[in-house]
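step: validate -> pass
step: tokenize input -> pass
step: predict -> running
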Amino acid sequence: MRKNSIKNTRINGEVARALADIIRLEIKDPRVGPLTSVTSVDVTPDLKFCKAYISVLGDAETGSATIEGLKSAEGFIRRQLAKTVNLRNTPEIQFILDSSIEYGVHMSKMIDDVVKNLPAGGEENESVDNM
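step: predict -> pass
step: emit ->
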């Protein structure tokens, strides 16, 4: 099975959906933040390993605490995943903090600040028109 085959893409989606449900409904660890989401999942073609990218709304301290809580509950999560998703092998899960959403919000805010401070007229374009 190739890495980006249709079957692997479908397995990634099923595992991501199952992980999101397990984290949202069954994890009782207080370190795991209430606004935790699974942004993407990459399962290897041999179904032995899985990288789960986790996004947490909050500061860096909340994110690192959530990842620690998920790592400590990895056995439970893996057992629940085996019950939910019928795979030949239940993959070992590596939780990775995904800060791309926070980065996107930060960049959007910076762009909005720059656009707000632009002059109203088209003075920048005058030098190009004279050439």
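step: describe -> Residues 6-99 form a domain with the GMP Synthetase; Chain A, domain 3 fold (CATH 3.30.300.20).
step: cleanup -> pass
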